[in-house]
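This section describes the prediction task in plain terms. A model, or a person checking by hand, is given the sequence of a single protein chain and must write out its three-dimensional structure as a string of tokens. No templates, partner chains or ligands are provided. The sample shown here is typical of the held-out split.
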Amino acid sequence: MGRKFDPDLIPPYPTLQFENEAWQRGCLSVAGVDEAGRGALAGPLCAAAVILPHDQPDLEKTLFGVRDSKQLSYIEREQWSLKIQEVAIDHAVAWVQIEEIDKLGMTRAGRLAFERAVSGLKEPPSQLLLDYFKLQDPCIPQLSLVKGDQRSLSIACASILAKQARDQLMIELGATYPDYHFDQNKGYGTAQHLKTIEELGLCPLHRVSFTEHLLQGKLFDL
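The expected answer:
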């Protein structure tokens, strides 16, 4: 069994500690990568990759207020998403569709989402920083961080881009399937969402494998 993570390692806000360590080693293109939608019952999985400039003074000050996306409101994420895209050297958003999630399972689907986000960058990065994940690509050095979206500014930026993109998509899809209130629950298993599934059954946006497990009474980490 691995050592338990020490919560004291989480700073008050994400910093450039890990980015600076990579930059000092000569890895100037550091990509933070994170995903959104892993615990949802409906909708695709989304991942984003963000490369911040290594030579911009006061970068932490410029992006002060960026947090793990779950700690921000929709309006705050929307505003920061625009700022991050303005500041970043490069960024990419990628998707894994519902059918792929059901076919691959969440672990492989999550890896695929990360790989697609990295592949969407203009050039391959020289270092990856990932939130509690590891890719099977030996070509790019990578560092998997527990609570990475709370410790690394690049990962936190990727977290915001991924969640903002996915939330916006679920709001749009909510108009097609209004009974499921995807504009409100974003596909997650809220009490209202579960009640609607019991009453109406699944719609084409549901991840069949995930939802069936939940309805069978199995515990599910949202």
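For orientation: The radius of gyration is 18 Å.
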